[in-house]
Structures are given as structure tokens and as C-alpha cells.
Design a protein that fits this description.
By secondary structure, this protein is of the alpha/beta class. It has eight helices and eight strands. Helix content is about 30%, strand content about 20%. Strands 1-8-7-6-5-4-3-2 form an eight-stranded parallel sheet. α4 links the parallel β4 and β5. α2 packs parallel to α3. It binds D-xylitol-5-phosphate and zinc ion. The site of zinc ion has 6 residues, from β2.
């Protein structure tokens, strides 16, 4: 079953509470929350106090994507702010195994993200211990970029490894997903789809979510 996790990076930041309420009302399964530190990626978004404040507006799962250097410094704060899933980047942490276990010890689900150029091979031994693998299908930092086609092969690789472990893994794909390519991405093995611009386009959230869900 495919789950949709809309990214609020493309929402109106002056009204984030309303945005998450609308996502819940129109059938989103989770809220994807993109945190950027201006060091790991060339952009700065928002952080812990903002997450804490929108936590009051919805019961949806908070799927927090940390695009920050050395994320272990902050995972506890994100957990306390209301994150349900915390995803860290393989490229941003020298001790991934330790940080994954730390996140799980906080009672939060743990995800690992890999940039387009990072091989699946580099995280394959962690697949049995994580709840989610995030295959980035754009170079992180900005919404509205084009899907990088070779990522299809990486999704298939993750799916193959998780099947070999007989594991029900969340396989998330993030970047450049729209109603025209969602079906092929789900067919590769993705089961959690992130979409930012495709959900908030023209401020027609209801119609856009319906379109994405019909698209596969
Ligand atoms: C990119 C972020 C994505 C982004 C997706 O750095 O991690 O979550 O907001 O946006 P779209 O769907 O517009 O590519
Ligand atoms: Zn993201």
C-alpha cells in the first residue's frame, strides 16, 4: 500500500498550521518536514520550534527529514518536538549505526537517506535495523526539481535487499515526483512517496492529492 507524505517545504510558511490541517483533511498519510541547515545543503528552512508549534494542529505522522550535518546533536530535540520518524543522511553522519540506534532508543522510527550519487551498497547492512530508507531522487536543498531517472534502479536495489531480509521496510522516494511518474516509482518498490510542489501547486491541495493517488 502506497502512502503519501506531502512536503510542507512548498506550503505557505505564513500559515503552516492551516497547511497541515488541510493535508490531514484531504487524505495525506503523513507530513514530510524538510529541515535544512545551510551547511549540508545550500538552503535553510525551519527547525525545532516550528515543528513543535505545528504539532498541535494535526495527528498525522511527522516524517522529519534532517538535511543537517552531524544530526546526532539534535535528534533528541526533534523527538521531543513531536517527530514520529527521524531520517538522517548517510553522508552527514560518521557513525550512522550509532545514531540509528540512538533514534530508536528515543522511541522514534529511524530512517536513513541517501543522495542520488550515494550507492545503496553503502547502507545495505543497516537495512535490517532501520524502519525506512529514503532514496533521494533530486539533490537535496530545494523543492520543484526534476526527478533523476537513474534513481529507479536504486529503489529496485533497496527493495531487493529488504525482500531478502524478509523485512517490511518503508521505502521512501523524495524529489520530483508528480502524477505522471508516481506509478512507475511505486512499481520500482517505493511505498512512501514524498511530494512538495505537486501537492501545493496552485494551492489546490485537495485536487492535487487526489490526482497523485489516482496516478498509480
Ligand atoms: C528536497 C526536499 C524535498 C522537496 C520535494 O531537498 O527533501 O522533500 O521538498 O519537493 P518536490 O516534490 O517539489 O520535488
Ligand atoms: Zn525531503
Amino acid at each position: 500500500m502506497m502512502k503519501l507524505s506531502p512536503s510542507i517545504l512548498s506550503a505557505d510558511f505564513s500559515n503552516l498550521g492551516k497547511a497541515v490541517e488541510e493535508l490531514e483533511r484531504y487524505g495525506a498519510d503523513m507530513v514530510h518536514i524538510d529541515v535544512m541547515d545551510g551547511a549540508f545543503v545550500p538552503n535553510i528552512s525551519f527547525g525545532i520550534p516550528v515543528i513543535k508549534s505545528i504539532r498541535k494542529c494535526t495527528k498525522l505522522t511527522f516524517d522529519v527529514h534532517l538535511m543537517i550535518e552531524d544530526p546526532a546533536r539534535y535528534v533528541e530535540d526533534f523527538a521531543l518536538a513531536g517527530a514520529d520518524i527521524i531520517t538522517i543522511h548517510a553522508e552527514a553522519d560518521k557513525h550512522l549505526d550509532r545514531t540509528v540506534n540512538y533514534i530508536k532508543g528515543l522511541g522514534v522510527k529511524a530512517g536513513i537517506a541517501i543522495n542520488p550519487a550515494t550507492p545503496v551498497e553503502s547502507i545495505k547492512h543497516l537495512i535490517p535495523i532501520v524502519d525506512m530508507v529514503l532514496v533521494m531522487s533530486v539533490n537535496p536543498g530545494f523543492g520543484g526539481q526534476k526527478y533523476i531517472q537513474y534513481c529507479n534502479e536504486k529503489i529496485k536495489e533497496v527493495k531487493k535487499i529488504s525482500d531478502a531480509y524478509n523485512k517490511s521496510l518503508m521505502i521512501q522516494v523524495d524529489g520530483g515526483v508528480d502524477k505522471n511518474n508516481i506509478k512507475e516509482i511505486v512499481n520500482c518498490g517505493a511505498n512512501v512517496i514524498v511530494a512538495g510542489s505537486a501537492v501545493f501547486k496552485n494551492n489546490e491541495i485537495e485536487k492535487n492529492i487526489r490526482g497523485l493517488k489516482e496516478g498509480f
